[in-house]
Write a structure and sequence with these properties.
The strands form three sheets. The chain has a two-stranded antiparallel ribbon. The chain has two domains: 72 residues, no CATH class; 274 residues, no CATH class. Helix 3 packs antiparallel against helix 7, helix 8 packs parallel to helix 20 and helix 12 runs parallel beside helix 14. The longest helix has 27 residues. Helices cover 54% and strands 3% of the residues. Strand 4 and strand 5 form a beta hairpin. With 488 residues, it is mostly helical.
């Protein structure tokens, strides 16, 4: 078990003494404090972005249709939407150029979440305000879910702080525009699913279960066919249902399914898989049914439509309209963004949105550079994305999770992170325009147990963990400020 690993080192014991008050505070109080802190941090940067596609979709749902009014020229935001590009015009679906209205290619859960607010405030609904509040709640959910791990209170707190303020989730939650709001909503339900699964499986850090033999598997399934309900664990069914709901906000999250095969209630990988699979299948099937009902296709044709438009319109980003939306040929350039892209240091020109050189900066001969000096900055983030290890170096703490022994928890988390990351890396776009690497929000909930376990297995983290988390928070604060200064 995780709790069997000693917290060693004189420095660690001194830090334990200084933070001993944490163990005396009720967990609910600590969680509430984290939510309040996140609420303040996410709200303060401010933004005037107007990408509110899901508000229009929620309005359409309230009127009993999936079709949004488009293009609407009503004097601009929020009553007009003729500026929207990420839509699938009905004229494309019907073949009649005179047809008005459009469908959104995005999964519908974010719009469903907004429906109560749109019912009250209509098109004036502040999607950013909803994102900030939900993002702060997600910080509390991370604290709750990590409480199901047998790690110290200090490790639990450090990992939650890392998630809330040391990853690009901060940037997503405070921005709240269409694409980032979808991440925030998906993370909510993945964290709920993780918490339920971890709470039902106190032995997840024991050695990895051996796969049953063919005869044993056949016997297990044969016995379950005689007792069908014997394969269903209600707790794991709930975890799967919550996980499936998350997929109706960000479909790529579905590739995190291996986690629920290895972690959760049920007592065996067969029961866990069947129970979680049935739960997840319900909302995923509803999503596919929604696509069929609105477009006639299982997979929304709006994605291909948008891909061709972007591939032809943004050639500087390296998109190729002859390739598929998910294509191995995008892997090399996308790996470069995910792991190697750096900020512009002491720039002579402001990086443009395509990664090239924009307008000159520092044109005055005696200009001094400043950290947030728009005229002459020390460094500037790149809109195409930046290395996940530069923006969130505390992810490196996950390396220690591989030490000592294998576990179902570690194996499940690694498989989930790797599968989601691979599918995203095959995608033509990597989240542009953004700070950092926004697609990491798809797998960050599964990475948190790895960071917590890694921190725990090196004796509670110590100075290295503290330094990496502080650096992560500082870098993301820098990114949030610059993102807003540059109008991203």
């Amino acid at each position: 078990m995780l709790g069997s690993v000693p917290e060693g080192g004189e420095g660690s014991r001194r830090l334990d003494s200084l933070l001993g008050w944490l163990d005396r505070l009720p967990a609910l109080i600590v969680g509430a404090g984290l939510v309040a802190l996140a609420l303040a941090a996410y709200w303060l940067p401010g933004t005037d972005r107007v990408y509110n596609h899901f508000v229009w979709q929620a309005m359409a749902f309230l009127h009993g249709t999936a079709v949004i009014d488009w293009p609407v020229d009503a004097g601009g935001f929020p009553r007009g939407n003729n500026w929207m590009q990420d839509v699938y015009p009905l004229s494309e679906l019907t073949g009649d150029p005179s047809t008005t209205g459009a469908l959104l290619p995005f999964p519908p859960l974010p719009a469903i979440v907004l429906m109560p607010f749109v019912a009250v405030w209509g098109l004036a609904t502040d999607i950013r305000a909803v994102s900030v509040v939900l993002g702060a709640i997600d910080a509390g959910l991370a604290w709750w879910a990590l409480g199901r791990l047998a790690v110290s209170r200090r490790v639990r707190l450090a990992t939650t702080v890392f998630f809330a303020f040391g990853t690009v989730f901060w940037y997503a939650a405070q921005l709240g525009t269409t694409w980032f709001f979808a991440h925030v909503v998906a993370v909510t339900f993945v964290l709920l699913a993780l918490g339920v699964a971890l709470g039902a499986d106190r032995g997840a850090d024991d050695e990895v279960e051996a796969a049953p033999s063919a005869g044993g598997l056949v016997g297990s399934i044969g016995g379950s066919l005689r007792r069908p309900l014997g394969l269903i664990d209600r707790g794991q069914l709930l975890a799967g249902l919550l996980f499936g709901i998350a997929c109706t906000a960000r479909l790529t999250v579905v590739f995190g399914a291996p986690f629920f095969m290895l972690v959760g209630g049920g007592g065996s990988w067969v029961r866990r898989s069947v129970s979680a699979g049935i739960g997840a299948a319900i909302p995923v099937a509803l999503l596919l049914g929604y696509n069929v009902a609105t477009t006639g296709d299982v997979f929304h044709p709006g994605y291909e439509y948008q891909y061709q438009r972007e591939a032809s319109g943004y050639q500087a980003l390296g998109y190729n309209p002859a390739w598929q939306i998910e294509d191995p040929r995008y892997l090399v350039q996308n790996l470069g963004i995910m792991f190697l892209s750096t900020p512009a240091i002491l720039p002579d020109h402001r990086p443009d949105a395509f990664g090239g050189e924009g307008e000159p900066v520092c044109t005055a001969p005696d200009a001094g550079r400043g950290l947030f000096d728009e005229a002459c900055p020390i460094a500037l983030p790149r809109a195409i994305g930046m290395s996940i290890l530069l923006t969130s170096p505390a992810y490196l703490l996950a390396a220690w999770a591989f030490r000592r022994h294998r576990s179902r928890l570690v194996a499940g988390a690694i498989l989930a992170v790797a599968a989601i990351a691979l599918v995203n890396l095959l995608h033509f776009s990597q989240g542009w325009v953004q700070f950092g690497y926004r697609f990491s929000n798809d797998f960050v909930p599964f990475a948190l147990p790895l960071v917590a376990v890694g921190m725990h297995r090196r004796g509670g983290g110590g100075l290295l963990a503290l330094s990496l988390i502080v650096a992560s928070v500082a870098i993301n604060l820098w990114g949030v400020i610059w993102g807003n200064l540059q109008g991203w």
